[in-house]
Amino acid sequence: MFEAMLKKVLQAFGPSGNEGKVASVLAEEIRPYCDEVYTDALGNLIAHKRGTSGKKLMLSAHMDQIGFIVVDIDENGFLRIGNVGGILPSLSVAREVVFENGVHGVIYFETPETRDAKAVASLPNMYVDIGCATREEAEQKVQVGDMCVFVSNFVDLGSRMASGAMDNRVCCAILVEAMKQLSSPHDVYVVFTVQEEVGLRGSGAAAYAIEPDLNINLDVTLTGDTPKMPAMSVALGKGPAIKMMDSSVIVPQCVRKFMIDCAEQAGIPFQREVLRAGGTDTAAVQRTRSGVLAGCISIPSRYVHTPAEVVDRTDVEQAVELLRAMAASKELPGA
């Protein structure tokens, strides 16, 4: 059941600023388990399950994915592109992409000679070929400002699975799965945020309106378990990671303790995460109003921001259980 739902969420078109289709999928999946589901002005999808404690627990994950935006169409029908989020040019060449209207294309880059081994792909010299010979023909299919995303397959790797958009659709799916059997004395707000990949833009607005007593964000994180990777104490298959710090946030000690205590009391394996570079919605929520207590559950992921992001099934299952354990706690940190 979870895998079928995850595949639906992964396949939904949703680059930053164009998350409507993935929001529709998520709304349909989570509506049976909440009292109300609504969308705010920025496009954040919010599902609310009422409690009795008078406290508000916000659980969040961003639903946007990285992509490309058309910045120009040349006379020969090639689409010049810019990035929407953290694109890796060297891993984008010769990849298939798709636009919201279903138009497909392939990415390549200019080279002084057709087989120049020294040529390097960079966004200024990259383009999308949608099979057109003129600007006029291309403009019948795509316009400047349209966005596209990588086409990727779901790959079953046994105990692990790979796909594009795992960042961060796997965490969206975890939130839906957790809500199916979630019991909490608190008002629980599940927020699927927009535009995280372009500057953590949606989560702060949602937190401002909700005014949570605690936010637990979910996102993927890097690992140190592949050849010649920089040292990092996170690996696939050793449990979800509890964030200590990244370049955008230092998680308060009381929130760390709460998360660790919940994991230990429930017998859920976990890892401690310190991310040298990169950030999540946790930081934007933490700085909202006069400050919000915020922490983050991180899903270890290999090959982040590529069409083949790899996660471990056990880490995902244990993250669901950790969310339920935290939501069931009668006391929240700082309360």
Write the layout of secondary structure elements.
Blueprint: H1 2-11, H2 20-30, E1 36-39, E2 45-49, E3 56-62, E4 67-73, E5 79-84, E6 96-99, E7 104-109, E8 126-129, H3 135-139, E9 147-150, E10 155-157, E11 160-163, H4 166-180, E12 187-193, H5 201-210, E13 214-221, E14 241-245, H6 253-265, E15 271-274, H7 281-286, E16 294-300, E17 309-312, H8 313-328
Parallel strand pairs: 3-12, 3-13, 13-16, 14-15
Antiparallel strand pairs: 1-2, 2-12, 4-5, 4-9, 5-8, 6-7, 6-9, 7-8, 10-11, 11-17, 14-16
Mean pLDDT: 96
SSE string, helix = H, strand = E? Answer: HHEEEEEEEEHEEEHEHEEHEHEEH
* Computed CA radius of gyration, to the nearest angstrom: 20 Å
Kindly report how far apart the N and C termini lie: 36 Å
Could you tell me the number of beta strands?
A: 17
3D architecture notes:
The strands form three sheets. This protein has an eight-stranded mixed beta sheet, sandwiched between helices. The relative contact order is 0.18. By secondary structure, it is α+β, with helices and mostly antiparallel strands. The mean pLDDT is 96. The protein is built from eight helices and 17 strands.
